[in-house]
Specification:
single chain; alpha/beta; 13 helices; eight-stranded mixed beta sheet; 356 residues
């Protein structure tokens, strides 16, 4: 697997221009964050291979994604929420975990069977989360049923994952693959690795007794609506061979990103919720759980339709996530489907969106 560093990422990768622009955009960030407080924490429900669980989702505040410091992904603004200085001490990280446990105690009647842990980059990158902290977190949640940790393929190593599996936890490694198409991942998302490295990471996780949850990006910049739909259907079908769960993340417009710059100039529209529903219908028979959680749905900067039907379609998507029954989408209609169909037929790559 590749060994990540800004120099390696840029040299000969053809990403110099993207990275230069992304570094300039990210330099506009002026906010600071408390290393003793998590970025976010919330209670939800999630579908897993073992059924639906109450979940505690934690986004730890770390020193930020190593790839983002080189420039990073065109759509990702999470690094803007990271702590200055590139690292967070072990004690401060465990303070964040305590805050999350307090949140759970105050907002849930019982402990969550599923724990999901994310950072602005890779939980398994020891520059972000030290081995000592990773092992302490594994012990803290050793009494739960299942845990998900997020990482780029580079850092997925059997020994790290075994910190969790040896606690008796059903463990999943969530990999931000974005697409199974290397050209789209490189040129539209500005992500450095190839699909084959995702396959290698899935094998490494399997050797540790863990599973893979693949995260895909619906409609990165520079794709038309129909191209994004086609790429997502193909990507889900390919990922289902290596992941038990595929999470389709519709792109939303985050600050300090290239997508934000394009959106400001009317050069990018987030995907239609109809597109999300269509992809879920078309891939309902793959051998994996396929889910989606459109963040910011109904807003101009999030996946949306006309504004009248957004909440209804979002509820249908959430229902599908839990029951995996595509018939839920037959119960939702709106006149704006005709506009969506016209966009799919007429919009072409690199043109401005036909409808906002």
């Amino acid at each position: 697997m590749s060994k990540p560093s800004p120099e390696v990422y840029e040299a000969g990768k053809g990403m110099d221009a993207h990275n230069k622009v992304m570094r300039e955009i990210r330099s506009e960030k002026d906010a600071t964050y408390d290393p003793h407080e998590p970025t976010r924490v919330w209670i939800d429900e999630d579908n897993t291979p073992d059924g639906v669980y109450q979940s505690l989702t934690i986004i730890l505040n770390t020193g930020g994604c190593r790839w983002a410091r080189a420039g990073g992904c065109t759509m990702c603004g999470y690094v803007a929420e990271s702590v200055e200085g590139g690292s967070v001490a072990h004690d401060a990280m465990m303070d964040q975990i305590d805050v999350c446990l307090d949140h759970e105690a105050e907002n849930a009647e019982e402990k969550s069977g599923l724990i999901k842990i994310y950072t602005s980059g890779s939980f398994l990158d020891e520059r972000e989360v030290a081995a000592e902290t990773r092992q302490a977190i594994a012990e803290t949640f050793g009494d739960r049923d299942r845990i998900v940790v997020e990482s780029l393929p580079d850092f997925v190593e059997r020994e790290k994952i075994e910190d969790f599996t040896e606690q008796g936890l059903e463990t999943d490694v969530a990999v931000g693959l974005e697409t199974a198409t290397d050209r789209v991942r490189h040129d539209c998302v500005n992500k450095y690795f190839d699909y084959e490295q995702f396959v290698e990471a899935s094998a490494e996780a399997d050797a540790a007794g863990a599973g893979i949850k693949a995260y895909l990006l619906m409609k990165p910049p520079f794709l038309s609506e129909q191209e994004a739909i086609d790429d997502m259907i193909s990507s889900i079908e390919r990922c289902a061979e290596h992941a038990h769960t595929v999470s389709m993340n519709p792109c939303n417009v985050q600050r300090y990103t290239m997508v934000d710059e394009l959106h400001f100039r009317d050069g990018y529209r987030p995907p239609w919720l109809w597109s999300v529903a269509h992809v879920l219908e078309e891939t309902a028979d793959v051998d994996a759980i396929v889910v989606s959680d459109p963040v910011g749905h109904g807003s101009d900067r999030g996946p949306h339709n006309c504004g009248e039907c957004d909440d209804r379609v979002q509820r249908a998507i959430k229902d599908f996530d839990l029951r995996q029954d595509p018939s839920v989408f037959e119960q939702v209609t709106c006149d704006c489907e005709h506009t969506w169909e016209a966009v799919r037929e007429r919009e072409t790559t690199f043109n401005l969106p036909l409808a906002r």
